[in-house]
Design brief:
Layout (H helix, E strand, L loop, with lengths): L39 H8 L10 H8 L2 H9 L14 H7 L3 H9 L14 H7 L3 H9 L14 H8 L2 H9 L15 H7 L3 H9 L14 H8 L2 H9 L7 E2 L9 H5 L5 E2 H7 L3 H9 L13 H7 L3 H9 L15 H8 L11 H7 L3 H10 L14 H6 L16 H21 L13 H8 L4 H7 L14 H7 L1 E3 L2 E3 L2 H9 L14 H13 L4
Antiparallel strand pairs: 1-2, 3-4
Helix pairs in contact: 2-3, 2-4, 3-5, 4-5, 4-6, 6-7, 6-8, 7-9, 8-9, 8-10, 10-11, 10-12, 11-13, 12-13, 12-15, 15-16, 15-17, 16-18, 17-18, 17-20, 18-21, 20-21, 24-25, 24-26, 26-27
C-alpha cells in the first residue's frame, strides 16, 4: 500500500503533490512528466517494508484498517501511541493519510506527538495538505502543528498545498504562520512557483496576496513570471506585474538544470519571459507580454523571439513582434535543438542553422504565410544566408530534411509526408518568385536540387529542373543529386534512398556516370587531400 493507492481526493491516480519540483525550461519538451522525487517522503513512508509485523504494531494496524474501536481499546490498554514503524511513520501519520479525523482526535488526546516525523521528515500536517483536507489541517494546527516544519528536502506543507491547489488549505496554513517565501532545497522554488507550475490560478492569487514573492528567483534563476509564461497563465501574469514583477525578466540559465538529451546539444542562457511563452506554445501570453513592453529583440538565448514565433507557427505573434520593432533579419546565433540534425550537420549532410533569419526558418518550415508576413509587412531580406551560405531556397527545397522527423523536431509519419511536400513546394515557388538563385551553392557544395532529393518525391526536384536548375553539380561529398536519390546515403544513422526521384532526374537527362560518394567521413578525406596538396613537392 502506498499513498498512490488511497488518497482521499484523487483515488486511482497519483496525488497532485507526488511530483518533482517544476521543470524550469525555455521550451516545452515533456515538462509535465510525473517524477516522484521531492515528495517521496510523503509517499515512501507508506511503501517501505518494515521489520515490524502487524502484531508488533497493533495500533498502526488498527488505524490503517479504520478500526477505531480497536484503537480505543489498545490505547486504553496502554499501547504507546507514538511507537513508529520501521520508516518512522506513526499511527498519527496513518490516520492523517486516511483522512480519519476521529482517529487523529483520539490519538492526539492520548498524547500523540503532533509534529512527529518519519525518516523523510514527513509530518501528519504535510499529509493532510497533500490530501487537501481542510478539516484535518484545522485539527492538527489547533493541536499545535508547526506549519513550517519541512521535510528533509526542504518542502513545507504550504508548498505541498500550493502544488495541490487547494485554496482553503492554503489560507489556513498562511493564517497559522506558514512562510510563503520558504524554498525547497533541490531547486530553491517557492510555494508560488509550485502553484504556477501546476497552473493553479486561485492558489497563486492567494499566495500573492500574502507576500508570496512576486520577484523571487529559484536556484536556476526562474521567477514566478517565467513559470506563468511557461503555463500561458495571463491572469496570473497580470497580477505578478502589478505586484512588482518585470516584463523583462529572464532566466540566466534558460533550460535550468534540465538533464534530458537536448541539454547535451544546446546550452541556453538568458531566456526571457517572452521567449519562454512562445517556446511553450502560448500565443496569447506572448501577445500580452509584447503589449506590456517586453523586448522584441532580446536574444540572450542565441535566438530572438521572432525566431521562436516562426518555429512555433504563430503568425499573429510574428506580426505583433514586427509592429513592436523586432528586427526582421535577426540572426540565429546557436543551432536549433534538433538532435538528429546535429548528427547530420556533423557529416555535412544538412546545412548549419547558425545565421538563420526568421525568413530562412519560415522557408525551412514551409510556412508561406509567415514568409509573406516577414517580407511584405516586415521588410525582411530573403537573400540573407546562414554562416555556411545556405539560402532560403535550399532549405525550402529540403536541404535540412531528416526522414522520420518533421522540421519542428518531432517524429513524423508517412501520412504527413504529402503535406510536407506540398508546403515545401509552395515555399520553393515563393522563393523563386522573390528571385532567389536557383543554382546557388553553399560551402559544402549543396544546391537547392541537392536539398530537393533529400526530401525525395517527384514534385520539387523535377520542378526545379524545369525552372533551370543544373542537375549534375557535385557537392563536397562527391555526390550529384541523382546519386543521392538513386544510390542513397546514410543520414542520422539510417540509410535512405528515393528511387522515384532518381528515375525522374534520369528521365530529365541527369548524368548517371559522374560523381563518387566519399562517405560519411568525407570531410576528413577532403582535409587530408588538401593537406597533402599543400605539402612541398620533393
Amino acid at each position: 500500500m502506498t499513498c498512490f493507492g488511497e488518497v482521499k481526493r484523487g483515488r486511482g491516480r497519483p496525488p497532485a503533490g507526488c511530483r518533482s519540483p517544476a521543470r524550469e525550461r525555455s521550451d516545452m519538451v515533456d515538462w509535465r512528466r510525473c517524477v516522484p522525487s521531492f515528495i517521496a517522503a510523503a509517499c515512501l513512508f507508506l511503501a517501505v517494508a518494515t521489520p515490524a509485523t502487524p502484531a508488533e504494531l497493533p495500533l498502526i494496524e488498527a488505524i490503517k484498517l479504520g478500526d477505531l474501536p480497536r484503537a480505543e481499546r489498545l490505547i486504553a490498554g496502554g499501547t504507546d501511541v507514538n511507537l513508529p514503524q520501521g520508516d518512522g511513520a506513526t499511527a498519527l501519520h496513518w490516520a492523517a493519510h486516511r483522512d480519519h479525523v476521529d482517529a487523529v482526535r483520539l490519538l492526539l488526546g492520548a498524547g500523540a506527538q503532533v509534529d512527529a516525523v518519519d525518516d523523510h521528515g514527513v509530518t501528519a500536517l504535510a499529509l493532510a495538505a497533500l490530501n487537501a483536507s481542510l478539516p484535518m489541517v484545522e485539527l492538527l494546527i489547533e493541536a499545535g502543528a508547526d506549519p513550517n516544519l519541512a521535510r528533509v528536502t526542504g518542502v513545507t506543507p504550504l508548498q505541498t498545498a500550493a502544488r495541490v491547489g487547494d485554496v482553503d488549505v492554503l489560507r489556513r496554513l498562511l493564517a497559522a504562520g506558514a512562510d510563503p517565501t520558504a524554498t525547497e532545497s533541490l531547486r530553491g522554488q517557492t510555494a508560488l512557483m509550485w502553484a504556477l507550475a501546476e497552473n493553479h490560478t486561485a492558489a497563486a492569487s492567494v499566495l500573492l496576496e500574502t507576500g508570496g514573492g512576486a520577484t523571487a528567483r529559484s536556484t536556476n534563476g526562474f521567477t514566478p513570471l517565467l513559470f506563468a509564461a511557461q503555463q500561458g497563465n495571463v491572469e496570473v501574469a497580470r497580477l505578478l506585474l502589478a505586484a512588482g514583477a518585470s516584463v523583462h525578466e529572464s532566466a540566466p540559465d534558460g533550460i535550468g538544470g534540465d538533464t534530458n538529451a537536448r541539454a547535451l546539444f544546446r546550452e541556453d542562457t538568458d531566456a526571457s519571459a517572452l521567449l519562454v511563452a512562445i517556446d511553450s506554445g502560448h500565443a496569447e501570453m506572448a501577445l500580452f507580454l509584447i503589449e506590456r513592453g517586453a523586448d522584441p529583440n532580446h536574444d540572450g538565448a542565441g535566438r530572438a523571439p521572432l525566431h521562436a514565433a516562426v518555429q512555433r507557427q504563430m503568425p499573429d505573434v510574428v506580426r505583433a513582434l514586427l509592429a513592436a520593432g523586432a528586427d526582421p533579419d535577426a540572426r540565429l546565433e546557436k543551432r536549433l535543438p534538433f538532435v538528429s540534425r546535429r548528427i547530420t550537420q556533423a557529416n555535412g549532410l544538412t546545412p548549419k542553422t547558425e545565421g538563420s533569419t526568421p525568413f530562412l526558418l519560415a522557408a525551412s518550415f514551409g510556412d508561406v504565410e509567415i514568409m509573406r508576413i516577414l517580407v511584405e509587412e516586415g521588410g525582411a531580406d530573403p537573400f540573407l544566408t546562414t554562416v555556411d551560405n545556405t539560402t532560403s531556397l535550399m532549405v525550402a527545397a529540403g536541404a535540412d530534411y531528416v526522414e522520420g522527423q518533421d522540421k519542428y523536431g518531432f517524429r513524423s509519419y508517412p501520412a504527413y509526408y504529402e503535406t510536407l511536400q506540398r508546403r515545401a513546394f509552395e515555399a520553393v515557388k515563393y522563393c523563386l518568385e522573390l528571385g532567389l538563385d536557383l543554382n546557388a551553392v553553399n560551402d559544402d557544395g549543396q544546391t537547392p536540387l541537392h536539398g530537393a532529393v533529400y526530401m525525395g518525391g517527384t514534385l520539387i526536384a523535377p520542378y526545379l529542373v524545369e525552372q533551370g536548375a543544373e542537375m549534375d553539380v557535385i557537392n563536397g561529398r562527391g555526390q550529384t543529386p541523382w546519386m543521392i536519390a538513386a544510390q542513397g546515403e546514410y543520414r542520422a544513422g539510417s540509410f535512405y534512398r528515393h528511387e522515384e526521384t532518381g528515375e525522374a532526374l534520369a528521365a530529365l537527362g541527369a548524368d548517371t556516370t559522374i560523381g563518387f560518394d566519399l562517405g560519411v567521413d568525407w570531410r576528413k578525406i577532403v582535409e587530408e587531400e588538401q593537406e597533402a596538396a599543400a605539402q612541398p613537392q620533393r
